[in-house]
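Regression test attached.
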Amino acid sequence: MEVKSRAPGKIILAGEHAVVHGSTAVASSIALYTYVSLRLSTPSSENEESLKLVLKDVDLEFSWPISRIREAFPDYVALLSSTPASCSGDSTKSIAALVEELSIPEAKIGLASGVSAFLWLYLSIQGFKPATVVISSELPLGAGLGSSAAFCVALAAALLSVTDSVSVDLCQQGWHSFGEKELDLVNKWAFEGEKIIHGKPSGIDNTVSAYGNIISFRSGNLTRMKSNVHLKMLITNTKVGRNTKALVAGVSERMLRHPGAMAFVFSAVDSISKELTTVLQSPTPDHLSVTQIEEKVEELMEMNQGLLQSMGVSHATIETVLQTTLKYKLASKLTGAGGGGCVLTLLPILLSATVVDKVIAELESNGFQCFIAGVGGNGVEISFEHSS
Amino acid sequence: MEVKSRAPGKIILAGEHAVVHGSTAVASSIALYTYVSLRLSTPSSENEESLKLVLKDVDLEFSWPISRIREAFPDYVALLSSTPASCSGDSTKSIAALVEELSIPEAKIGLASGVSAFLWLYLSIQGFKPATVVISSELPLGAGLGSSAAFCVALAAALLSVTDSVSVDLCQQGWHSFGEKELDLVNKWAFEGEKIIHGKPSGIDNTVSAYGNIISFRSGNLTRMKSNVHLKMLITNTKVGRNTKALVAGVSERMLRHPGAMAFVFSAVDSISKELTTVLQSPTPDHLSVTQIEEKVEELMEMNQGLLQSMGVSHATIETVLQTTLKYKLASKLTGAGGGGCVLTLLPILLSATVVDKVIAELESNGFQCFIAGVGGNGVEISFEHSS
């Protein structure tokens, strides 16, 4: 039997950077997914039993003999899959040894932490069972769209779905969601994986990926909410790598140089985030037409983008995207850390496909990569495929 | 004898739009001038006596026989040039009649109000004396650089300098300034001229043009201050005509839609304006190097520009200028109403001429017009030329 799972990426709709200084931010899931396929091996004596990880997008395949894994974890005590645990110092060393033995090409060495997270989640939840895990993703890596969180969430979901810790209906057809308790467990395990990849993740990316929809967050408190509006975003990846730490530090330094002005800038962003959550939750179509809501969101995006520029986190490529979409009277804002990364452009529901094609063609002619995705959809889902 | 006067244009360094909502704004003079040459005619019987106005830049020449002017003002009572007065209803009609008789080409009909202001100032200060007045300017018209105020200030200065209302040293060589009392008078008369051209001017443009330097203003209160820093600005005229009223109304409407966020945006601008006045008045080079001051000004400009964008008053052409100057790591902001108009770019003192040439060439290849001007210099000045 094959278990498939998919977990969405995320975008920051409003409040990035300002959230570090106490403002509200709003994140949402996007309908771009990371897929995990898990196939537990049936016992066989022909081949040596092994754990296989296939990263389809980057064309890499890793395999560990189960005997080698056992050897790396001599004192292994089975964890309870119902009790998410952090990777201890000893386990970190054992995993590092297993990853070092792989021949990851230098150019793709950034994947090593993801492989480590994979090993931790796999061993913690499935122990020494041989299996083949195939990963593929619609999300660009390292572009601020939550690809690592989607990876951890999808992986945790697939691994947990074949344990006693979650009860799922194996006979249900197609993609289906978990119950609330199951999602909590998936989310907690995914967070443990994120910690291996990012050190000190905020927990926002995995939460959005697990539960989907929209999340507002402020001072470490996350509030989940359901959007009543179906927004469609054009997401443009400028492909310019960002140094998130340096960008965050830059804003803090500007805050120290101009405490008065910057405090007002952050407060303005806080108002925008709060307004956005109100707009997105407004009951439609009774109160406002979809077009009216889209116009409000566009205005809030434009205002937030201006405030991000005043924080100094824009970038020439971001400005190029803004300039290009402005020609078509479309509102855009950077999403995430800025300094490159991705830019959001709202695609109004009544916008013609011809215009969308033109905008994308023009953006891609600049070497950017474009995605279209619905905003605020479902979180992680699974599907069972029974081979005949 | 010929009297020459020159009056500078102005730029808004910080605070445009926000000033309408109670924030502080900062304006400064720029070393781009409107020149007036006044030559009172010596009594002659050969030609009919007339008042001649030559607008050199637009290639127009107007002439009124003195007898025709007398006829238009049958009840003329000489005003005291020392007591600036508003153009009354009757005078407005008489002037309108004189202007209507001119054959101003349709494309240049916008100049009619300037000609009216000229007639009011001339008749009020010089009465029915025949003369030739020649005007030329380095300032683009209607681009938000205070060309009409510079015109009124230079005109009032030239006209007053040959009356008893101001005491000037006719023998002094070259350009020289007025005393404080004389400047007050010039400024008041210029304001009367501005009222004819603009209806309800703020008084900021003529005040900057008369006194020069830097002026901060808030809720109708003007504070003159002297800058200790010599900044050089690249001023790019996008040549896109602005509808100032519509732009101001647009910001007010956005304020009504998003009162919370916009109030913080305006407060942030207020902080920026105040910081800017502090930076510009900081004693140099004791406290900060010129480069440090320039960096501070650049950061404040970038922050202000972001806030203007969040007010929605930017424009595709403004973004093009920003994008272009950003490539050369130069900071820019729109100045004035936005929606086209002019953009300021700080030119650091250590910036090489080669880079400046490159930036200008690139901007001009977009059809823009570039000026380089010192900021915060002298106000109106006069010079007497004694023909031998």
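Expected vs. actual: identical. Chain B has a mean pLDDT of 93.
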